[in-house]
Q: What sequence folds into this?
């Protein structure tokens, strides 16, 4: 299975213990039955949030944040940014994720973003980290 982990899922995994953390930990340990697809734009968003927002320092040091991003970059299936991005969702900033998913035959987008979760089109399906985990996404 090929999935996209939205930036909010990856940031949450880095700073909290919960479904996002368990999903990312299983993936990084090589024990998950999925491959994560990411593009430079998504990786850049994760890097920017984790390394430039001072309020996150109470949960993760700058050094650990940089290491987390480097680790992701080393193991992810890094593909090109999507070519054509059409307006599909309530938040135009989310549309590149849908374009990325469709261009690279992604089965599921895992996100905590209500704009994606409440999106009627759901092609590919979008689910919360907890729902993904409940459906066996970490094994």
A:
């Amino acid at each position: 299975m090929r999935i996209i982990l939205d930036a909010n899922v990856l940031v949450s995994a880095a700073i909290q213990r919960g479904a996002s953390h368990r999903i990312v930990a299983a993936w990084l340990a090589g024990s998950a039955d999925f491959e994560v697809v990411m593009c430079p734009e998504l990786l850049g968003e994760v890097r920017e949030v984790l390394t430039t927002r001072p309020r996150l320092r109470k949960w993760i040091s700058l050094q650990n944040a940089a290491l987390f991003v480097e680790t992701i970059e080393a193991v992810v299936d890094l593909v090109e940014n999507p070519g054509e991005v059409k307006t599909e969702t309530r938040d135009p900033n989310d549309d590149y994720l849908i374009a990325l998913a469709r261009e690279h035959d992604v089965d599921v987008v895992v996100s905590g973003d209500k704009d994606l979760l409440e999106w009627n089109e759901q092609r590919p399906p979008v689910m919360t980290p907890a729902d993904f985990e409940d459906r066996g996404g970490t094994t």
